[in-house]
Amino acid sequence: MSVAAPIVRxxxxxxxxxxxxxxxxxxxxxxxxxxxxxxxxxxADVADRAEHAELLVAADxxxxxxxxxxxxxxxxxxxxxxxxEAEFRMLAVDPAAQRRGVARxxxxxxxxxxxxxxxxxxxxxxxxRNSAAFALYDSFGFVREPAxxxxxxxxxxxxxxxxxxPTTVT
Length: 170
Known about the structure:
The chain is of the alpha+beta class. The protein is 31% helix and 30% strand. It has 5 helices and 8 strands, in the order βαααβββαβαβββ.
């Protein structure tokens, strides 16, 4: 399977089952579903995510390799963003397609979408032990912002990051 340049597009209902599978598999492989906090069920509910967020997928032809939810403040899946910002959540790459630029393509699509919408920054949170995610976000210029840190459930510590985006002065 060639994944040199995955195409990022809006998810379609036909993608939902595969997005659910790969998201749960990716989070489980990373140890993020070791404790039963109900997050696996939330990750598997792709139809709900697509209804309340811009669900993007990275695909190689018909094969979905990864997905991410792009959200704006005040929407159901927003956790960190404030007015004038955007965030992305539930970034996942099929374990079989990791380390091939899929996550990078999805983050780039979120940065581009936030820029097009005129957002001043893009925010994300990640578990403190996810060094691969932090390396990826660092390569885009995201910086740690401790004020965004939070703990949704005991034992799950999320660290916040922010990317300042260029804004057009009119």
